[in-house]
Amino acid sequence: MGLMDKFEAKKLLQKLDTIQNFLSEKDLPRLERKLDAEADNLKRNMFDDWLRSIPKSVKEIFYGKLTYDQLYSKFFPSVLHSSFSKNEIVLVFSILKSRNKMEQYQLKYSEKLSNLKVCLQFIKENDRSKFLSIFQNHDIKQKLLKAKEFAEENKNVLSNIQYKRENEWDEIAESFEDLDISLKNKRFEYLNPFVNLDTEKSKEDIIFKIIRDFLKNKILFLSEQSRNGVEESIRGIWKNLKEEELSNQLNSLPIEMLKKQIDNEQIGDVLDNFDNVGQVISLSLAEVSERYGLNMQQSAEILKQSKEILNDLKSNVYPKLTLDKLKGQRLQLLHLLNAYKNYPDEQAIEEKVVIENYRKLEEKLGNLEDIAPNRYLTNFIDSITFKYWCESEAEIYRILDGCIQVNSTFRDCLNDNLNDQEIKALFEKDSATFYALIEEITGNKKSYNPSDLPDYIVHEVQKTKLNLKGFKAHLRSYQAFGSKYIFYFQRTLLGDEMGLGKTIQALAVATHLSNQGQTHCLVISPLSVLENWKREIEKWTNIKCFVFRGDKAIKEQNLSKWEESGGILLTNYSHCRILKESRKNIDIDFAIVDEAHLIKNPATKRSKNVNALIKNCKYKLLMTGTALENRLDEMINLIDFLNESLAEKVANNLNNKTYKTDIAQVYLRRKRKEVLHELPALGLTTMWSTFNEKEQDFYDQAVSEGIAGLMKMRRAAFIDEDSQKIEQIINICVDSHENSEKVIVFSFFKNYVLKLLKKKLPFLADDIISGDLSSNQRQEVIDKFSENPNQNVLLVQIDAGGFGLNIQAANRVILCEPQWKPSTENQAISRAYRMGQNRNVMVYRLLTKESVDETMMEIIHEKEDIFNTYANDSVVADAFMNNDSDKEENEAVMKKKVFQIERDRLEKKQEVVNVSE
Question: Mind listing the domains of the chain with CATH numbers?
């Protein structure tokens, strides 16, 4: 038999690698499997004993996080505090003995095994067939021969080691006398089968973590969800509301209040830089001095007087929980107060005890972890300490079980089982109790930035400056923000609720652009509000106004004047096509589209005509009081008029949380409730209209009948289906319904106006309040109207509904025509605007241009400025309500005077027509 070849060498190399590996790793698979089995048996017994000692309620906490098998895998037994069986001892020391022998064998044969590996590797790489060996180098042949001889001589070492491992080392030892070891010193070796010791030393005990998290969550939950938590929440909300109210009052307090306190011309000039006291309060002494060039004494005087005003307000500030402000924290406060009122005293006491015990358990758990932070480390504490550790652990579970048992009896007393409407109704009936609870809990007794716009937008808009030279209106803060927003973003959709002054905001922008040389503004609106636009333009601006409507020659003349000199061109939707066709190119700097929801459908001719007319405008403003947040398709269509790419982006991201941020650069909507500190409790909006041809003929005929035709003159705006006044009323009623508000419509004429409206208006009450109904019948109609959410419009004959009726459920009032006595209107309005009314009241006075309406208003009623749409609550109330009857002229005389003026006006008008013909 010859020397080995490269194939045998290759096999021996593989065998050698295996032997070196198990010598290095001291791998004893059979013994280790047996030891693992013994260890697993011990762990299982110890785990089951431990688990049986745990109360059921505590086990449920564990099982809420881990399964039985997961819990078992995380459990580390305190093996060094247990008694070993003989088998366990034999296995541990058999492994130790065998590994000791393996170490000795490895040392003895280490050099020989290394040399053998080198030789085998050389043979594997250089051994050749007889034919090829002829061409080998002589030195290689000699080295190869020696390598083969060494390998043949020593290969039996591998078989010997393999035999010993399989038949001696990986077997239970028969005696231990030859091992110089001590059970006391080597016992920790038994921990090896359970875990990697190095990593286990720093591990957090998963069982303790589950308990700690449970305690933390329970304490937090009960702190918030107990009666004590209810009290804290009430105090917190009330504090927030007080701070909010104080800030609102400071920001609405005119700077003149501060100027009156300081009799100094130089300081007064500085204070003219501020709009309100709140702006001054926010400044430091250094800021006032450095920014406005005052000395420290003057600056200190400003801040001193400001702080005195602040302290006066602070001592009296008391948030009002009125119905029209009941949302968010205010609504949450009512629910909490009701829950507190009905909270069981016994449960409240037990809650405090349980929370205290949970906190004690947290402390006990911390003490336990100070001794041994995990179960593995209990193997290295002495037996007395270990016993204390186990007893402490058991006590924690026992106390925890008791707390859980008590906790399980707690009812959910925070849910008052009332929905928002029910809690509002309860508050409306018994507000005194709610305020009493607030005082009991808080100890507090009574002695504008948009919230839904990104901060960067608010900042950029706020710093925008407008040149309002020639603009006669005083913008409220939210209106100023709206005008700046429109100008800054250039193409916008203004969706403010009706009555917030969208027209004023638009005209402010038109004024600014006109002052900047961009003088050509176009306003498109429904015909019913065209006259209103004309009056607002003439009232609040110095901009020339031209109307593109009526006779062809007049339209052409007005259009040419507008093109030549600039100004505001007014037209209605139906004339957009005519306007576009009248010129090849129309240069429009600023286009305003009022009631823009009328072009929500891009497929209609109306929408196409408007778009064709204003498509290339740099500044475009669409206005609508209709809420669009829940009409996304309509919103997208309107945005498409302004910014096609943005409309496409929004359409593709409707479910994306960023959609509101995306539209923030184009859509601005404020509600009356959101700017309540800027609005009065009572507001007046005058809405103008014009007669159509049929109405004008009826009116002229009535005038020709003499004083007997005066009643017909007053109701002429309601004789035709196509009435602008009816359209205005319908729009107000629909808007009110969409905002869950109720409307009272007053008219003198039951048969000719109210009965006609009954056929036209939606969401009506059961009947018209008139003299035909008894007192009981009237009250039944009003009660149902007040309670039924589907009844939003109440028709009232003004003489019948002006006295003795309380209709606080409504907060919008429509006056269809002027009355001969101001007190008649005042008393009608007071049916809604009276004690117990918890919403802003908006009054809409409908007037027809060049009619008896206009004449009656000029002669009988005080000027509109006295009753400013946005005046202060108390000022408006006093000015509006204190029109004593003794100031009113004799009605008969007044009627004759009004009729004579109207007849003279029509005669002059006819003379002009005759001359022109």
Answer: 6-194 (no CATH), 227-337 (no CATH), 455-668 (3.40.50.10810), 680-916 (3.40.50.300)
